[in-house]
Design a protein that fits this description.
By secondary structure, this protein is of the alpha/beta class. The chain has helices at residues 14-25, 54-63, 126-134, 152-162, 176-189, 191-203, 254-258, 293-307, 316-334, 358-361, 367-374, 386-394, 410-413; strands at 6-10, 29-33, 69-72, 76-82, 85-90, 93-98, 102-104, 108-110, 123-124, 143-148, 166-172, 209-210, 213-219, 226-231, 234-239, 242-246, 249-251, 263-264, 267-268, 281-283, 349-351, 356-357. The strands form seven sheets. Strands 3-2-1-7-20 form a five-stranded parallel beta sheet, with helices on one face. Strands 9-16-10-11-12 form a five-stranded parallel beta sheet. Strand 4 (76-82) and strand 5 form a beta hairpin. Helix 1 (14-25) runs parallel beside helix 8 (293-307) and helix 3 packs parallel to helix 4. The chain starts with 5 loop residues before the first strand and ends with a helix.
Length: 417
Amino acid sequence: MKTGKVLHIVGSGPAGLAAAQAALDAGAKVCLIDDNHAPGGQIWRGGPARWTDARALDFWKTLHGHPDFTHMQDAQVIGCVDANTLLLEMEGRGVPVGFERLVLCAGARELALPFPGWTLPGVTGAGGLQALIKGGMPVAGRRVVVAGSGPLLLATALTAARAGAQVAAVVEHQPLARLAAFGLKLLSRHRKKFVQAASLFAALRGVPYVTGAQIVAARGGDTLRSVAVRAGSRQTEYACDFLAAGFGLVPNTDLARALRCDIADGAVRVDGLLRTSRADVWAAGECTGIGGVDKAVAEGRIAALDALCLRPSARDMPGLRTARAFAALLARTFAPDAALRAMCQRDTIVCRCEDVPAASLLPHRDWREAKLATRVGMGPCQGKTCGPACEFLYGWPRHDVRIPIMPASARALSQIE
């Protein structure tokens, strides 16, 4: 039955696709806005032809070709014209899009922590290398080290290995005892996740897995040649062509901030039905807190249903509680700890856009003062990389959001009044 309601969704990852399917099934019209050419976000990257998750294919089967579904591809949200109008950039033009009810599924980005040599060509984020490989970058025969902390390290290593790379080592910062406790909790409370983790380890049999270790430095002249790693008192140097350094994810909250939604603990603040502090905006997926695919799918569905004034089914809420329990376990186990600050030396570049070293930042009291004195966070990324790093290194929270929230052309910006 048609409801006559229109739901706008930003982001076509698992949360966005789940929300879109739920809304269409409920009889609403859906406008899905995404900055990528193909749906799927970062987790289901590459579009339907490359998906292996049955849920993604099921969502797209409902959406693709549906008369009430509009898919705005290659559409970058760069800001707001007013409280209920998004400004998109499409093919260099500014496109205003009004909404009555909006679900934000903005996802997350990697937390990049500075260390000597992290700006060398060949050093990427863990998810960044995975995305490059899925996008077609050849790595066959190349030497790869994956280092940092979290389950993404194993997934990235497996992606590289299956593409023909020689994975020299997976270096995990957390100690073995903590990882073992995590595994036991998975076994007792999240059996499916335990099986997934076990299958990753089995597929990477023979690859050194170093625990309780951290990066000392990436080394090379014009490009990466090796990475030095310290575990306890022992330092090891691995020759490599690529270093994938991942320290977790950071929720994307810029659009939520621009829409004046409340932020708490670095994520969009939502209630049990994914309502934000605005009555006409909901949020779902990684932008509400890092938790993986299951959490994103559950939240996307519930957010869409509540936005349409419909009740979740009996199976929706238990699934969400389980997914959020797993997210909390991930956060407790893999949250970056203070020891990782030691990777950043006085001469280490912290803001790579403006070439600002740590020594220039140390005298300042907060993010705003440092920006005014050093231009940290004022380059093309507008602090999306160095901002979270400075919050971790120096305890400087970021409260500002500037329009455009992404680099944009003057032509597109002329639409903002």
